Amino acid sequence: MEKMDALVFKDLGKIVHERIPIPQVTEPNHVLVKVAACGICGTDVKILQGKHDYKKDTVLGHEFCGTVVEVGEKVTAVKKGDWIGLDNNSRCGLCEYCRMGMSSQCQNLSTLGIFKNGGFAEYALATQDVCYKLPDTIDEVTGTQTETLGTVLNGMNIVQMQSYDSVLVLGCGPIGYLFTALAKNVAASVAVTEIDPYRIEVAKKFDVPVFNPYKCNLEEEVVKLTNGKKFDIVIDAIGTQLENALDYVTAGGKILAFGMDDSVKATISPYQITRRAIKILGSYIGQNTILPSIKLLDANKLELDNFFTETIPLKEGPDAFKKLGFDLETKQEVPKQAMKIVLKP
């Protein structure tokens, strides 16, 4: 059996390069994809840190695009030779959540790159429902963000940002970056927080106010910036900031809980939420947002010049996690040196 290069998650803090068998098309709805590129997501980092659900001995990587090389007999959505992006989450379409239009909560969700082998490899096996044709105008690096942007667009749909809104994005990692880029296209005003020196400099390139909450009283800064009102919308792009977000949002405002960190607990005052009529909205993965994501990427309306830091060979992937803030040798968090790193087989 032919083999391929892959990065396999073995245990917390351990992802290794291995030669494993190329997956085979064995089901009528299978699509075999030759991976062109795969981004390293913050979720990949959190899996290695033990802050996200995981499955050992799985090929990570869910931000990928590539070319179809083989399809099952029932596949009609794509064909051999198609250039595609992928939604890594396959939904059944039959459970109560799917049939109620809440497919992000599918009871039979199947996830590539987390619980099933994903895109940190030369080839990946998917089902046709997660495969989307990409226009030739979207290159292999940009195409990796098809699913990522789709998740952010779902958050935008949920929070229903308006042209007159003031928006605070907590955290300027890749997710916070995309929310900021979108908010600049929509909202009346935008501000960002970040604590990492490298990413602070990236955030400043948006030409919006950027605050390091470790070096200022953020609530005081928020009050000054909004003339005492605080922000209409606060987006937690980290997964640790729900408790703090309540200090920055205006009465009647909205908090979007988007980032995920299973190691964090929050203490909040239900009285304040009720008295100030604050809406807390959860958003998980994408939901009918892959096609909109492709349209937006193709329109080239987002400021992505500072989003992609570098593209490196797949085999060098384990070394990249240190640049993304997690030293695999010491299992300690370290200062970041990158925004988005893309791996190429």
Q: What is the topology?
A:
Blueprint: E1 3-11, E2 14-21, E3 30-39, H1 42-49, E4 58-59, E5 63-71, E6 83-86, E7 89-90, H2 96-99, E8 110-111, E9 123-127, E10 131-133, H3 146-159, E11 166-170, H4 174-186, E12 189-193, H5 197-204, E13 210-211, H6 218-225, E14 231-236, H7 242-248, E15 249-257, H8 270-275, E16 279-282, H9 290-299, E17 308-313, H10 317-323, E18 326-327, E19 332-333, E20 340-344
Parallel strand pairs: 11-12, 11-14, 12-13, 14-15, 15-16, 17-20
Antiparallel strand pairs: 1-2, 1-4, 3-5, 3-9, 3-20, 5-6, 6-10, 7-8, 18-19
Helix pairs in contact: 3-4, 3-9
- Number of helical segments? 10
Our measurement of the CA-to-CA distance between the termini, rounded to an integer number of angstroms, reads 19 Å
Given as residue ranges, the uncertain stretches (5+ residues, pLDDT < 50) are: none
The helix-strand sequence is EEEHEEEEHEEEHEHEHEHEHEHEHEHEEE
How much of the polypeptide forms β-strand, as a percent range?
25-35%
Helix content: 10-25%
CATH superfamily of the largest domain: Medium-chain alcohol dehydrogenases, catalytic domain
CATH class of the largest domain: Alpha Beta
What's the CATH topology label of the largest domain?
Quinone Oxidoreductase, Chain A, domain 1
Question: In the CATH classification, which architecture of the largest domain applies?
Answer: Alpha-Beta Complex
Mean pLDDT: 97
Shape verdict: globular
